[in-house]
Amino acid sequence: MGCPSSPCARRAMPLVLAMVAAAATTPARAELPALSVGGFGRMDVLLGDISDSRDLPGDNLLHVPNIPVSGQASLESSRANAHLKNSRAWVRAVAETGLGTVEAYVEGDMAGSADRYERRLRHAYLIVGQLLVGQSWTVFTSTSALADIEAGFGVGNVITRHDQIRWTQPLGDATTLTLAAEEPLNRLHVEGTDRLVSSSRDRRPDMVMRLDRTGGWGDVSVGLAVREIATIASLVPASETDSETGVAVNVSGRLALGVADNLRFSFKYGDALARHIQAGYFADATVTADGRVDPTSTQSGLIAYQHFWAPRWRSTLAASYTDNDANAVTSRALTRRSRSAHANLIWTPTPRLSFGIEYLYAWRQLFGGEQGDLNRINMTTRFNF
Amino acid sequence: MWRTGFGSVFRSAGLRGLLVGLPVLVGCAGGSMPPPLAGDPSAAESGETPIHAVMSKRLLLQFASLNALLFDPHRTETELAAQRRLKLDEIRATSRGLQAAAADVRDMDGAAIAESLELDEDQLRSFRALAARLEAQADNLAQLADTGRLERELAEELFEDIYDTCDACHRIYRDQWAGR
Q: Please, what is the average pLDDT of chain B?
């Protein structure tokens, strides 16, 4: 989902700002950066028909591991929650330097913790021409394809933010190629347990590319991720390692329909895709007792239709799914598949203010067969500044 | 009715004040359009919507799309700024189209207009003047979009001016066609 306490991002912030300031004060181009600030305040009121009684991320947004299932302890019927954690602010500095246009951007919200307000860094990067360095959305995702839903994201959304080095290369007027080396982070299922752990033997960065094509009809993107998944140090001697290469593909986009209506879609398939799906609640691979890595095959998708009833009234109908076909997974407690459906109505009486109401249905099934669902109403108020 | 209802609500907006233009441009592209003039060079075929109305409607749609960016919940300001530039480019191109269409209307043969719409000399003069005014206003809009200086006060003022021009011209049509 993001790196609330990413060491790289924390170190990057002062560096980013210092670089912009230094570039702006070089003798060749002593021009101050253009500084802008913005964001929005947003209040969410969530009314659900069932909830895990602990304070979990699923109380604030759709979080698949927190969809209660049959037989689960500590359930309570109906739950109301209200918070301002999705409020957001950003600072942007743009300067013309001897190297061209340089931009520094920092964005954060207050969603760093499930049970209290905690600052979270969403984006922090420096752009010099076609080069981006810092933390931002994975290149694997076309942000144009993300649905306008109040719950945040459907179960099948690719929504992770990574530390990365990214190069964007235009190929003509309507085509763009983006290449990135992204922070590796693998979530592994340890055979015989219910645990998902992070791999400590990541060596090579994730190599990700995306090809975008745009036009008056909308835009379509094809993303490709190649990742190394290595075993856990505690399972094998340091001199012995096993790793596999996972490959995943993402076809996504936004098609224009009529006046302002649009259809957004995203379909993903591959090994080691779990890292890119909603906070990585699937495993990228299973590690056997002898340290062998068995990658997980996963597919997911989302389709969302946005309709403008009038210039100030819009709705989105969305459906999303994820299936984890992990033959090597032996834990009955991990999620095998999930579904979600969303329907909302949003009113923007002024260009600064919006009110929304959304119905969410979500379902998941474990490898052990247990399943459960939830129904939720999410009401939002947002003020742009 | 459109202008009063929407203008007061959106008066406090920024570039966001472009929303005030939506009902304004509906006035030039709305359902009360009279049929095109006989020999009207701005209409492809008799009965089809005149080009200046097509351009107005297109601007309406483009501004709606531009304003929708204000509520994008996912993209960074970097991405949104790039999208706004693209949409302003579209608006500039459409404004130039509206400017050209208004110029065509202004340059139409006076005798043909007068005969087709049964306008007297004073009305014909008003018709030409309003077409020229719409041309100038579209030119101004294109220039502002080109420089990215579509600020709140300028946007609101410009759209209200365009609305006045459209309404004044259509009032001439409606007066003439209502009598038929």
A: 67
Q: Decide if A374 contacts A49 (C-beta within 8 A).
A: yes
Q: When comparing pLDDT for A133 and B58, which is higher?
A: A133
What ipTM was estimated for this complex? 0.82
Is A173 in CB contact (< 8 Å) with chain B?
A: no
Distance CA A234, CA A190 (A): 11
Contacts of A345 (CB under 8 A, 6+ apart): A313, A314, A315, A356, A357, A358
CB contact A124 to B (< 8 Å): no
Shortest distance, CA A234 to any CA of chain B (angstroms): 38
Are A384 and B70 a contacting pair at CB < 8 A? yes
pLDDT of residue B48: 58
Q: Which of A107-121, A230-244, A356-370, B145-159 has the lowest mean pLDDT?
A: B145-159
Distance from CA of B147 to the nearest CA of A (A): 16
Residues 5-24 of B with CB under 8 A from A: 9-10, 12-14, 16-19, 22
Residue B71's identity, in one-letter code, is F
Record the pTM. 0.78
Q: Is B148 an interface residue toward A (CB < 8 Å)?
A: no
pLDDT band at B128 (very low <50, low <70, confident <90, very high): confident
Using one digit for the tens of pLDDT, what is the confidence trace for B78-118? 999 888 888 788 888 888 888 888 888 888 888 877 777 77
Out of B12, B13, B75, name the one closest to residue A143 (CB).
B75
- Whether the predicted pLDDT of B156 surpasses 60: no
Three-class secondary structure of residue B115 per DSSP? helix
Distance (Å, whole) CA B135 – CA B133: 5
CA quadruple A82, A86, A89, A95: dihedral, nearest 10: -170
Burial of A27 (0-12, 13-18, 19+ CB in 10 A): exposed
Residue A175 structure tokens: 């085509």
pLDDT digits (tens, 9 = 90+) for A200-252: 566 789 999 999 999 889 999 999 999 988 876 666 665 567 888 999 999 99
The overall average pLDDT reported for chain A is 83
Tokens of B4: 């009063």
Report angle CA A110, A112, A117 to the nearest 5 degrees. Answer: 50
Distance from CA of B136 to the nearest CA of A (A): 27
Helix axes of B51-68 and B77-106: crossing angle, nearest 10 degrees: 170
The Cα–Cα gap between A180 and A193 comes to 34
Rounded to a whole number, what is the largest CA-CA distance in chain A? 69
Three-class secondary structure assignment of A24-82: HCCCCCCCCCEEEEEEEEEEEEEEEEEEECCCCHHHCCCCHHHCCCCCCCCEEEEEEEE
